[in-house]
């Protein structure tokens, strides 16, 4: 199935390779480098490449390419999902998935890859199981290791691997029993020039942090579960009960995990929290243009909009900008041609405004389309879809856990066309 | 990656590894081994430490063992003789009371991949199959697969195969799945593992115990099974139903693939299955992973071939975001084209128009081609946008627009008036070969309606000496002869000059031959030439094209959820948007063996050809063949 894996950084150096069957020469990556050269931007490299003897399937995460070499016909979705799982595990172990961190922990990475695949077939991919075989590095542990000669490699068989519930290890003990759930929603929207919504969708996730003793059986119910269009669950959730009663019933993994992710796509349900009044124009004659942007609250359900940030990719011929902001700071990156306006909190009494002139390369033709505005924002304690957790019950254990739910709305791919 | 100071470091490590003081201190010994592994991973050649590492293997420390095994497996093939030394230790470890050590030893032993070691490995592997710990059985089962790869003669004991078959009933789901994988590899020659009724039902029962990867594997293998009765078939289908809407795209795709192969005779059931996966597939299209979105989009394209209306109301899901990579944008546009209907056409065209000015040239060209495609059903609105794009005077946009217009008028001749009026003046912006070829073709065919056509051609003919592209020259010849037929007075002199140049001075054989052919054709008489060059065209009185025929599912079912699904679509777009007429025509000739086809059913073949705008040369050849025998032999048999 998966024959070999190469980790390649965005400049094109292979810095780690692992072969599960026979050794395949690095030269197979030349096809990939050729495609990468052609694509200019690393994001544009096609995920599947065909070479005379192999398929190359790659994903791009954290400025790294995970390139797998495949010799037989397999499902592409399978390989892509698996590569993402590998990246997820790295992220889980080291806090981030970057070249530096992988190079620092190269021994653990090797050990992990060894456990995750055998003969090219997935073996152990659950983070809980892996963590018992190979412990993630922490500062404390590395200090202890150097003193006592311990290591990150566990020497006992993970109990979870043999239990019926592969995602939870047995014999968990905590002094403080707690379960936290974060409902995080991202608004993906495209708003056109006149302010009407072209497309809007909410991508939501519920991230959980569960530290409970023993084998608790949890039930999480919502006030308005019908809202959710398509949902995808952690394997621990009992799908039958969701289908019949619309509650999440599960024995949770230990620690942090993503309980579910969902979409809300019917457009009338998607509230757009801010409006943008903008005017960007380039004059036909003379090398200048004008820019005027005002942001105001629209549907915020009475909550404060924070972390407001506006990013505009200017056309190439814009040399510099001369702007004044009534609030926040703005910067213009001359090489990347990116204007960033960091607004901060949105004050409904005094709307933030950015205006001024753009100076352009003289003699260059007027750009044929105006740049679009990318927005970034945050609203605490609000799930913009209106999703609310009504209660969390626990069975199977005697103690009373501490419970908490937090809501957060963010802008995902939120784009205003001009 | 060059590793500076590698040699020194290796020497120092060897000293450390063989130092008895370090060997006596487990902590320092392990750290030294750790340093070796670190160097190995950085690409330094530490194979010379092999014998020292073999010694380091004989330890009670599991962690150190694990590290040494990683080293040994990487370098064993370079040192087959020394590897023999390890086998003893490994075999001893296979008896260890700790199942973790046993499985580790077994795995490493099979990972050494040395044919000379096979005889030592077989015995512990057989024992491993009967081990009481599941994790050892998992490794042992796959170990046999690795072993069979080492012995290409495939002389594995039949008893082992039988034992593996019986392990399909193991209580541990991973052992079951690994068994399937191993048997598939061992029995590759015989077509893989035998899937009969009891095995199928057993696997289906165990399906929900397996992890995501295992489920995919089982579903894939089951595709070979053919149920014996309808009752059985429907039992299986209802068992599979929950995984059809699985939140994991790989499982969903594998299940659908199995569904389609099981119900190949029941189109209604297959269609119902496609309806059912709509939700999961759409959410895969909105996945946070780019690559997943791409793969899902390719599969959506396959589905749409059979059920064009499947995603009609969800067209907004396929609008492109600003920062999406080009490969996704292009796929999305191809999907959008399929989703167009009376209600959303305005919205879609507006959206596509926005993409035409994308920074990426490929994306812009795909967008323009997409508008042209929609133009087959909604000509007026599309042409309005295309004409508008010409005013931007951007080189790549103009080129793409002209190509699109050429393709469009071929299918929808009723657009020709608008196209002709739009063409004026765009020859100044056109630079690339493809675009100029398209323009020349249009000039040749619609020359009588374009007042400036001869003058535009004149510029080309005057510059033919410095023309580098073969395609442009060939197209120029055809266009000049065609235009000569409709406007002889203006063209005669020019055509003479062009033919003279091409026959006397041109170096390229293709161009010369083509010129000679036209020259002789003109000798045969103007009527004959007209017959060849102005053959049948599509009937302008025809209405617009409404949708395309839904293909039967079986056309694509076999490529669903395979690498092919992603590849095929890529090739289609390549020829549809890029192919130059000659290129495609030659390919078609090779494929169809044209004269033979013509002899059997000339009318059908002709109709097929007419539906494709870029097969012009092929049509031309057919007309040539339909000339009187005498004229033909006159043309073809004279040595050029």
Query: Can you count the helices of chain B?
Result: 36
**How helical, in percent, are the residues of chain A?**
10-25%
Task: Please tell me what the overall shape of chain A is.
Answer: globular
Regarding quaternary structure, what we see is heterodimer
What is the terminal-to-terminal distance of chain B?
58 Å
State the CATH topology of the largest domain in chain A: Beta-Lactamase
Which strand-content bin applies to the residues of chain B?
under 5%
Q: Could you name the ranges of chain A where pLDDT drops below 50 across 5 or more consecutive residues?
A: 155-162
Q: What is the total number of structural domains of chain A? A: 3
Radius of gyration over C-alpha positions of chain A, nearest whole angstrom: 25 Å
Category from helices, strands and their pairing of chain A = alpha+beta
Alpha-beta classification of chain B: mainly alpha
Largest sheet of chain A: 9 strands, mixed
Span between N and C termini of chain A? Answer: 48 Å
Write down the overall mean pLDDT of chain A. 84
Identify the notable features of this structure and list them briefly:
heterodimer; A: 418 residues; Beta-Lactamase; Immunoglobulin-like; 3 domains; five-stranded antiparallel β-sheet; 7 helices; B: 640 residues; transport (chain B); ARM-like (chain B)
Commentary on this structure:
- Chain A has helices at residues 29-39, 76-94, 99-104, 106-116, 127-133, 139-148, 239-245, and strands spanning 2-9, 14-19, 48-50, 55-61, 64-70, 117-118, 121-122, 178-191, 197-211, 217-222, 230-233, 247-250, 255-264, 274-282, 288-297, 305-313, 318-325, 329-333, 338-344, 353-360, 373-380, 389-395, 402-416.
- Chain A is built from 7 helices and 23 strands.
- The relative contact order of chain A is 0.12.
- The two termini of chain A are 48 Å apart.
- Chain A folds into 3 domains: 2-148, 2-Layer Sandwich (Beta-Lactamase); 178-270 and 384-416, Mu homology domain, subdomain B (Immunoglobulin-like), CATH 2.60.40; 274-380, Mu homology domain, subdomain B (Immunoglobulin-like), CATH 2.60.40.1170.
- By secondary structure, chain A is an alpha+beta fold.
- Chain A is globular, with a radius of gyration of 25 Å.
- Chain B has helices at 6-18, 20-24, 26-41, 50-57, 62-75, 80-93, 99-111, 118-129, 134-150, 158-167, 173-186, 197-206, 212-222, 230-244, 249-262, 267-285, 290-306, 326-339, 345-355, 361-375, 379-390, 395-411, 416-423, 433-445, 453-462, 470-486, 488-504, 509-524, 526-533, 554-557, 563-578, 581-592, 594-600, 602-610, 616-626, 629-637.
- By secondary structure, chain B is mainly alpha-helical.
- The interface between A and B is large, with 79 and 83 residues.
- Chain B: It is found in: Endomembrane system.
- Chain B: Residues 10-522 form the Clathrin/coatomer adaptor adaptin-like N-terminal domain.
- Chain B: It is a peripheral membrane protein.
- Chain B: Keywords: Membrane, Protein transport, Transport.
- Chain B: Belongs to the adaptor complexes large subunit family.
